[in-house]
Structure formats: C-alpha cells, structure tokens
C-alpha cells in the first residue's frame, strides 16, 4: 500500500511538472540559400537561450508564458517576434535569417576559430573571395595571395610585411592551412602552392602578424587559411578549359626559342551537391606547361574529394582526400646577362617527379549543452625524386587535433581550447641518406569576450613541445588583442602576439649541391622567437550601393636568432642555415577593399601600399660582409610595395586590371654580386650586379583581363599578363614571365 501511494505521488509530481513546461523548437536557415545555420543563437526574453546544431535545429524547454524570441547569427539580420508558449505544448517555428551583404559584413574564422565579422577582429585579416581566383585564372595559390597588400612570395617563400626573405626551399614563417589543418611538408616545413585545389576554394583568409598562440610553430609571421566550399541546397558543377602562350622578351636577344612559342594549358572540374544527409565536394585539375625558361616544364594532375555525413542533428563525420602526381624541372640561376637570362646555367637544372596526398578524417559533435567538439586529423604523404641526382625524398606527416569550444552567449564569452600532436618521418638522400623523425605536441586556450556590445577582447596562450632527432624543446607563447567600435563602421584595434619557430629537418640536416655549390647541414641551428605588435583603424565607407573598408595600420615585429640560409665558406663555398642574429621590422600599411555598384556598374577593388624598414638590431662587420648592401638592411625584402586590382561588369562584359609594384631589392647575398676570383673577373652568377644596376627603380607589372558572358551559364575570357612586357625578376637570377596571353572558357551547370 505504501509503495502504491509513493508511485502515485511521484506520478502526480511528474504530471504537475510536465503541465508547467512548454517546448519551443525549430530550424534556422539562410533565407537565400535555405542552408541551415550552424551555431546560430536563439534567446527567449534575452535570458534563456541555446545554439543551433549541425542541422540548424534548436530546442528550448521552459515554463509556459508570453515571450519575445531573438534569433541571430554573425553576418545576418536579427529576427525577433512575440510568441506564446502553452502548457504541455510544443511550438515549432522555422526561422529564415537574411544575410547582410557587402564587404562590411564579411565573415572570417581564422582569427578566433569561430565566425566573426571582419571589422571586429583584433588582428589584420585580409580575405580573397573565390570569384577573384576564377576570374584571374590563377593556377597556384601563391599567384593569388600576392594581390594582397603587404604579401609577397619569393620563389615559393611567403613573406608578410617583410617577415621573411628567401629561404631556398626550406622553412616558412607563414603557416599555410587547408580547412584549418597545416599543409607544410614534413621535412622542409615548406608550402607546395600548386597542391591546393583552387577549383573548390570558398575564400582565403590571411592573418598578418604572429599567430603562434593559436597555431604554433611556423605561424611566426602570419597565417594563410584556405577554406573549401561546401555544397548548398542546389547542386553546382563547374568546368573550365584554358590555353596560353608566352611572347618574346622585350630584349629579343634573350629569346632562346625559334618559331614555336612556349605554351601552357589546363582544365579543371568542380562539383558540389547534397544527397540527403550526405555532402559531396569533388574536383579535378590537369596542367601542362613548356616554360619561357629553357628546358623548364611542368606536368601535373590533381584530384580531390570532400565528404561529410550528418549522422544526426548533433554529430557529423567526414573524410577529405587530395592527391596529385607531377613531373617538372627547375633551375637555380640563369646562364648570363647577354643572352642567357631565360636559360639555366650549366649544371643548375633539376628534373623531378613526385606524388602528394592528404587524407583527412574529421568529426564534429555538438553536445546537449551546445558545446562544440571537433576532431581533425591529416596524413600528408610527400614523395619526390630528383631524377638528375637520383636523390629520393620520402616524408610522411601525421597530424591530429581535438578542439573544444563553448559559447556563453549570456556573458558574450567564447572559450576555445585544444590539444594536438604531429609526427613526421623523413627518409632521404638529401639528408645524408638518413632517416629523421620530428614531433610536435601542444595545448592552447583562447578567450574572446565582448563588452558593452562595442569592445572585443581576445587573449590566448599555447604551450609547445618539439623534438627533432632526439633534441627536445618546449616553451609557452602568448597573445592579446582588442577591438573597439567607435561608430557604426569605425573600428580601432590593437594586438600583440609572441611568435616561435622550431627548425625543420631540412634546415638542420640538408646535405646536397647545386652546380658545384654545396648546401651544408647545421645540427646546431636553434629556434627563433619573436613578437609582433600592431595598432590599426578600419573605417567603413558606404556610397549608395557601393561599400568598402579603409584600413590604416602601423606595425612592428622583432625576431631573436632569426634563421636564414646564408652563403659562406663551410669550409668550401656554399649555403648553410644560420641564426643570423636579432632583427626588427617596422612599417605602415594603408589598404582599401570595396564592392558593390557604382551607378549601375558592379565594381570590386583591392588596393594598398605597404612600407617596411627591415633591420638588424645590431649590424656588425660579419653581417655587412655577407650582404650586398653596406648599410643596415635585411636581405631579400622590398621596402615599398603597391598593389591594385579593380574589376567592373558592364552588361555582358567584365573588365579587370591588376597592378603590382615592388621597389628595388636593396640587399642580396654578397657572394652573388662580388667576384669570387677578382683577378679573372669570375662570378658565381654572371651579370647579376649589372642587372641590378639596370633595374634599380623597381618593377611595375600590369595585367588585364576581359570576359564575355555568352549566357547565364558560360563565358569566355582573354587575359594578358605583364602587358608592358616588363623584364623583371622577383628573385635574383630567376626571371619572371614575359608578356603572355590566356584564352579561357568556363561553364556552369
């Protein structure tokens, strides 16, 4: 009897509790694409709230009554309405949020690992949209990022605001990411720009300044994050075919070919589609080039596939694969200034073949409290063989990361943390025919807090553990930043961040030779550390249907024990990676980006000027002897750079112009311009000093492009790069392309 009464009492209490509850649920989507918005927030009376899951679904259990709900998502207009929730009833409401278009509302994720408006970031972030990549027909990512103010690439080495020079194919102070995962080679820590699937890029985000607190070693000078596009509600299929030729150089004496012009051609394919809960992204690319440089060619083919399966509203898994085969040749420096600028010096040509693959399993899970759990992993296999010297290089990189993120919307606070590990195994004749292992482990934490709906404050810490060939090292790095919104479209930001870079296997142990010049190992090479600071103002501009952002910033970076390959006698002539000393780079930058309609003409614009003053903290006689400049300036930097790209659409025609100016490169290795045997006037590189004297005013290169829309699904375009047929060289003794023409046909199904 007592047990029966107890059961009845419990049932009565449960019934009473259930009669006092109500459920508010639904799905939040993009009003235009109908895509679910993951992580959108829903609040009742600005108190009780939750975030949407993988399918954009939300559910709030509360007491009956009258409420005002508010649904919001970064980059979208908020939506509010009054609702009544009744006892023991569920209200299901599908909410469609309208995106706020325009450059002022561009959304980025790289700075904080979650969606944030570009104007609210505490560091400088530039964004390249996929349209610019397609319209310019850039076949490699390094061609694209050089359109951004303050960014240059010297023979594959990314350089942001003078933070890097020329590293001879090893080491990088700029971390390249693809879908938030590092994609630097396991042995040299170097980016392979042609491996990035350009046909499926959504946007590229570039952080200028130290980002080691969130991203670790190799992010000392900045981040380049490539974000792959995912399918929308409607399937998309794109095809393009292109072919082009190189003109003769302005100095016809340098033309080594007869009647057959050097050429290039290629094709790419991309398809994105949803199949119920399964998302598919796939693409392919082939490219062939017989270069304007004699005996230099490229043959490569690439295929990529990205998949994602939503098991339920809270859990999704996926697998991404990108693979490429290639055959190519390259040379170290030219044959001579009289008629050999586009011809390799004897013995400097290398013929290569290789295979690259990334395999990326991942998992996303939103728990019942709205916390995000993400597991990212990557296998990166990079297998190459230099046919000329019969030297093989096999390096395999394994990477895994767990991320945890919690949005405390009531307190306008986001907590991001994670733990990761990577391991690389390298076997190559390049490194003394030995096998080397290197590993990295790290933990990190970042807090992003918004105060008074105006002030964004971000702070982070990371602890790194590194080892290479049994040598171990660990250290913490910190960052702090703030952004204050003074007016509707006016933001003031300040940031400070520490940087750290551990030497790569190639920098410490490489042992090879090029045309009699050896590249020596340096097992005693030590890590470089540093910090960067910035103060900037971002001002939004809106004129009728056209809007943009003016950004003005001053910056400073300091590096201790900077690593660079340096020419010397070890004991014979050659190169070795050395800790060259402590450096300081100061400068300023002004940039402008905009998009919209000027009158009835849709127009986009990217423009900017960057000035740097790169110096040693203490300039001594040894550094002076190693540099071609007899004053304090770091090697392989452009003090002044100007970037400009504008594109307009007039009815069925689209016209674009790109202008890039680099000032004179004031300092290179002294051994490249000084005779090694003065008595007989013998140089390592013939004519380099004469060439530098003749091109001391810097280089201005102009590209133009014209496209015609045949119909809504297809277009044909003609591109002319280096319109003025400028004879220029961004890396000493390696000529850039003369005037060249490309004809391209694009089809969207």
CATH fourth-tier homologous superfamily of the largest domain: TonB-dependent receptor, beta-barrel domain
List the total number of helices. Answer: 8
Q: What is the CATH class designation of the largest domain? A: Mainly Beta
Mean pLDDT: 88
Shape, principal axes of CA atoms: globular
Distance between the termini: 74 Å
Q: Got a strand count?
A: 43
Query: Which range does the strand content fall in?
Result: over 45%
C-alpha Rg (nearest Å):
28 Å
Helix content range of the residues, please? under 10%
pLDDT under 50 segments (min length 5)? Answer: 5-18
The number of distinct structural domains comes to: 2
Structural class: mainly beta
The appropriate CATH architecture of the largest domain is Beta Barrel
- CATH fold group of the largest domain: Maltoporin, Chain A
Largest sheet: 22 strands, antiparallel, barrel
Question: Outline of this structure?
Answer:
With 749 residues, this protein is mainly β. It contains 8 helices and 43 strands.
Task: Walk me through what this model shows.
With 749 residues, this protein is mainly beta. The protein has two domains: 18-97, Sandwich (Immunoglobulin-like), CATH 2.60.40.1120; 104-229 and 237-748, TonB-dependent receptor, beta-barrel domain (Maltoporin, Chain A, Beta Barrel), CATH 2.40.170. Residues 5-18 have low confidence and may be disordered.
């Amino acid at each position: 009897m007592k047990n029966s009464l107890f059961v009845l009492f419990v049932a009565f209490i449960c019934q009473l509790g259930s009669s006092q509850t109500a459920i508010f649920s639904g799905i939040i989507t993009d009003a235009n694409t109908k895509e679910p918005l993951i992580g959108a927030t829903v609040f009742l009376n600005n108190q009780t709230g939750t975030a949407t899951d993988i399918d954009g679904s939300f559910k709030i259990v509360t007491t009956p009554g009258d409420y005002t709900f508010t649904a919001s998502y970064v980059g979208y207009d908020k939506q509010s309405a009054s609702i009544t929730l009744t006892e023991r009833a569920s209200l299901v409401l599908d909410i469609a949020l309208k995106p706020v278009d325009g450059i002022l509302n561009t959304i980025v994720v790289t700075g904080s690992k979650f969606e944030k408006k570009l104007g609210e970031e505490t560091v400088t972030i530039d964004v390249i949209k996929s349209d610019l990549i397609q319209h310019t027909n850039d076949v490699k990512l390094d061609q694209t990022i050089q359109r951004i103010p303050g960014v240059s690439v010297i023979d594959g080495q990314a350089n942001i605001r003078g933070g890097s020079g020329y590293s001879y194919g090893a080491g990088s102070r700029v971390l390249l990411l693809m879908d938030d995962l590092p994609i630097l080679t396991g042995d040299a820590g170097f980016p392979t720009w042609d491996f990035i699937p350009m046909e499926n890029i959504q946007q590229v985000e570039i952080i200028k300044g130290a980002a080691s607190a969130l991203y670790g070693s190799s992010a000392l000078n900045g981040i380049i994050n490539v974000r792959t596009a995912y399918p929308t509600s409607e399937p998309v299929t794109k095809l393009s075919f292109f072919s082009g030729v190189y003109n003769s150089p302005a100095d016809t004496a340098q033309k080594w070919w007869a009647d057959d012009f050097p050429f290039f051609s290629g094709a790419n394919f991309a398809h994105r589609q949803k199949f119920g809960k399964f998302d598919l992204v796939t693409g392919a690319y082939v490219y062939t080039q017989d270069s304007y440089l004699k005996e230099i060619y490229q043959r490569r083919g690439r295929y990529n596939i990205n998949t994602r399966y939503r098991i339920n509203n809270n859990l999704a898994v996926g697998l991404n694969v990108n693979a490429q085969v290639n055959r190519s040749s390259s040379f170290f420096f030219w044959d001579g200034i009289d008629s050999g600028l586009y011809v390799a010096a004897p013995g400097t040509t290398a013929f290569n073949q290789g295979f690259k693959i990334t395999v990326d399993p991942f998992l996303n899970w939103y728990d019942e409290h709205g916390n995000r759990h993400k597991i990212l992993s990557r296998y990166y296999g990079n297998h190459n063989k230099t046919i000329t010297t019969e030297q093989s290089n096999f390096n395999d990189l394994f990477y895994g990361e767990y991320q945890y993120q919690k949005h405390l919307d009531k307190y306008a606070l986001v907590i991001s943390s994670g733990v990761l590990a990577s391991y690389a195994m390298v076997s190559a004749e390049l490194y003394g025919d030995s096998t080397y292992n290197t590993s990295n482990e790290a933990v990190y934490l970042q807090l992003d807090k918004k105060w008074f709906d105006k002030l964004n404050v971000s702070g982070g810490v990371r602890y790194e553990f590194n080892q290479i060939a049994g040598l171990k090292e660990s250290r913490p790095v910190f960052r702090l930043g703030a952004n204050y919104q003074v007016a509707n479209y006016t933001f003031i930001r300040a940031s400070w961040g520490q940087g750290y870079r551990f030497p790569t296997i190639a920098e410490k142990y490489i042992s090879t030779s090029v045309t009699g010049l050896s590249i020596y190992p340096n097992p005693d090479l030590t890590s470089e550390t540093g910090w960067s600071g910035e103060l900037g103002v971002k001002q939004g501009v809106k004129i009728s249907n056209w809007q943009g952002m003016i950004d003005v910033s001053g910056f400073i970076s300091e590096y201790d024990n900077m690593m660079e390959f340096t020419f010397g006698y070890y004991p014979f002539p050659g190169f070795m990676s050395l800790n060259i000393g402590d450096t300081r780079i100061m400068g300023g930058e002004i940039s402008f980006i905009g998009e919209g309609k000027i009158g009835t003409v849709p127009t986009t614009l990217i423009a900017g000027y960057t000035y740097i003053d790169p110096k040693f903290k203490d300039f001594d006689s040894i550094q002076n002897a190693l540099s071609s400049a007899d004053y304090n300036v770091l090697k392989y930097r452009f003090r002044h750079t100007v970037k400009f790209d504008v594109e307009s659409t007039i009815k069925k025609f689209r016209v674009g112009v790109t202008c890039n100016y680099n000032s004179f490169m004031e300092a290179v290795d002294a051994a490249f311009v000084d005779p090694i045997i003065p008595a007989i006037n013998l140089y390592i590189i013939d004519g380099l000093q004469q060439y530098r004297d003749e091109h001391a005013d810097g280089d201005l290169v102009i590209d133009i492009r014209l496209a015609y829309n045949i119909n809504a699904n297809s277009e044909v375009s003609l591109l002319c790069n280096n319109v003025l047929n400028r004879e220029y060289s961004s890396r000493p003794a390696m000529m850039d392309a003369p005037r060249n023409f490309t004809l391209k046909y694009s089809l969207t199904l």
